Amino acid sequence: MKFPSEPFKIKVIEPIRRTTREERDRLLRQAGYNLFQIPAKSVYVDLLTDSGTAAMSDNQWAGMMLGDESYAGSENYYHFEEAVRSIFGYRHVIPTHQGRMAENLLFSTVVKSGMCVPNNIHFDTTRANVEHQGADALDLVIKEAYDPRCELPFKGNMDLVRLEETINRLGRDRIPLVMLTITNNSGGGQPVSMENIRQTRALVKRYHIPLFFDACRFAENCFFIKEREAEYADTSILAIAQELFGYGDGCTMSAKKDGLVNIGGFLSLNNEQWARDITNMLILVEGFPTYGGLAGRDLEAMARGLREVLDEDYLRFRIGQVRYLGELLDTAGVPILRPIGGHAVYLDARAYLPHLRPEELPAQALAIALYREYGIRGVEIGTVMFGKKDQATGRTVYPELEMVRLAIPRRVYTNMQITYVAESIIELYRRRESIAGFRMTYEAPVLRHFTARFEELPVRTSQRSGL
Ligand code: P71
Question: Do 297 and 198 share a structural domain?
């Protein structure tokens, strides 16, 4: 079946509310047109993120009741450690409250000022944590990743030529580790192939540089490997994951994605000295090593979630639901990033709103229009999130892609709600000329997208007359 139906039924429901356009317009004005500032109860379909928004299973909720809230040596920690070891295979398992703490602990331990961390594409928290150490966060994904129409099975792959050039240019001492983000979120949720992982491994090994995975969406990446790399067609997701992580030296993970939990993360690695230093820092800032900023019940939910996410029926439905939304849009001519990624559909805002200039923030304008007209919340992944000011000229440097991401929470929305989203976006596309641009009026020095404020620009005369 092209779009498999849900391999679960619904036991508990949470009512959601429709709002009026007037109400949404008022809320937007109060929020300074920043969708992060809109109360979730006034959102009808919330596609802001797939992070921490999953519906847990009855099995996970049952596990929550078995939380052992002992300060040291909680039973749930051992379950969690066992689950992580059985999939990822690294010696040390260090729980954290979410992914960015795992990143912070890793980078503050091994990255020094003047160093460089190459990645296919750093996610924003990863980039911020690398840069926070005074180091350079370098994106080295294959160049096709920046062409929204280019159809490749593994558009998250590392550009090995540029990686080797970088290592030769900087010297291995300035590169404490190389990372691979699976799937590559900032590049459209695109997978990395096993072949590319193997080759990356072989390359960094020659220079004795460790390889780490940003493993947030590892199960979705493994599903794509099974689907698209012929030799893995009959291999289980678990076996694919085991092989994949076997090529690395460690990983950071936000379990709020493929851990199927609402909070949690971890760091897992082989290096003894790094693990010791990280654990000492963990105790200082996060908690004792057998709970790492989480409750025992959270660790249990994570242990169970990590096993559930490997279920192929689940993954087939999951990837299929995202594909369903993408294909409805694509068939109607709405410009989206191809191929459709694992956790989200990305609208190509420059192509959707060709009448807006880059400085009019097309992706921000499109995200706002979707909320104002239909109560659907996506997230801007473009100039607001990734644009930079050139220090010398004061000019904005625009990112390669200007997108609105519609991230699909796991096991949360029915296909009817997904159909509503598709129909809304198609309807809006037919009257896209009526959408005006925006201007930023406030920005914080780091991670500005969370708190920035905006002002709507007047609709241009040519737009008003429908030209
Ligand atoms: C996503 C998020 C969560 C998010 C973060 C910032 C703004 C809006 C939403 C988080 C990731 C991620 C990757 C590849 C590390 C983190 C941090 N993604 N790596 O996509 O995608 O994890 O949120 O648990 O700290 O919406 P954390």
Answer: yes
Whether the per-residue pLDDT at 374 is higher than 60: the answer is: yes
* 243 lies in the same domain as 331: no
> Does 16 reside within a domain?
no
Q: Is the pLDDT of residue 2 over 90?
A: no
In a domain, 256, yes or no: yes
Q: In the beta sheet, which residues pair with residue 267? A: 94, 252
What is the count of structural domains for the chain? 2
Global model pTM greater than 0.90: yes
Residues contacting ligand 1 via CB (< 6 Å): 49, 51, 98-100, 123-126, 181, 185, 214, 216, 254, 256, 265, 407
CATH code, domain carrying 190: 3.40.640.10
On whether residue 3 sits in a domain, the answer given is no
Confidence of residue 462 (pLDDT cuts 50, 70, 90): low
Contact 60, 301 (CB under 8 A): yes
Atom of ligand 1 nearest to the CA of 36: 8
Beta-carbon contacts of residue 189 (< 8 Å; ≥ 6 apart) = 183, 217, 220, 322, 341, 342, 343, 344, 346
> 54 alpha carbon to ligand 1 midpoint, in Å?
14
Is residue 413 located within the same domain as residue 447? yes
Nearest CA to ligand 1 atom 27: 99
Q: Among 260, 281, 308, where does a domain finish? A: 308
The residue contributing the CA closest to ligand 1 atom 2 is: 51
264 CB-side CA count, 13 A? 29
Question: Please, which residues have CB within 8 angstroms of residue 394's CB and are 6 or more apart in sequence?
Answer: none
Q: Cα(278) to centroid of ligand 1, in Å? A: 21
Range of the domain at 317: 21-50+311-458
Q: What is the Å distance from ligand 1's center to 211 Cα? A: 20
What pLDDT is stored for residue 467 in this prediction?
Answer: 42
Q: Ligand 1, residue 103: give the atom nearest the CA.
A: 15
**Confidence tier at 465 by pLDDT (50, 70, 90):** very low
Q: For position 466, what pLDDT does the model report?
A: 45
Which of 37, 185, 213 to mutate for ligand 1's pocket (most ligand atoms within 8 Å of CB)?
A: 185
pLDDT of amino acid 463: 54
CATH of the domain at 389: 3.90.1150.10
Strand duo 403-407 + 344-348: pairing: antiparallel
C-alpha 93 to ligand 1 mean position (Å): 20
Tell me the per-residue pLDDT of 74-127, one tens digit each, with 9 for 90 and over.
999 999 999 999 999 999 999 999 999 999 999 999 999 999 999 999 998 899
Q: What percent of the chain has pLDDT over 90?
A: 92
- Tell me if residue 458 falls in helix, strand or coil: coil
